[in-house]
Amino acid sequence: MNHWLFKSEPDVWGWSHQVARGDLGEEWHGVRNYQARNNMRAMKVGDLGFFYHSNIGKEIVGIVEVIAESAPDSTTDDPRWDCVTIRAVRPFLRAVTLEDCKVQPGLEGMVLVNNTRLSVQPVTPEEWRIVCGMGGVAP
């Protein structure tokens, strides 16, 4: 299993929206960056990811699961763009902010810390373990 981070502006699509979709989940559509798209193409059903509120809050607030692998993005006719479907798994007990990540030993190389603009990014097993602990949940 691989781990990922999905970024969304909470006033557009936040954790509460994701939770409200229940087990049906939601397409992670609208991504128009090749690196982020390629990350989604690498995902497998069962992979887990962090749900990150960008712009407002700048914090990891929960864990999501990939429930459908990469398929054409239903919001465009352009065949270059794909998306996965994710569902909410559990919230963090404590949100983990970008600032928290920047000062946490072991997260110096995390993509979130070094490339804050990439909307879908990989997370290493060690980063996953550290961030889950910071958020008060089991890895």
UniProtKB/TrEMBL annotation:
It comes from Tabrizicola oligotrophica. Coiled coil: none annotated. InterPro entries: 5hmC_binding, EVE_domain, PUA-like_sf, THYN1-like_EVE. It holds the Pfam family EVE. Residues 2-134 form the EVE domain. It comes from the Bacteria. This is EVE domain-containing protein.
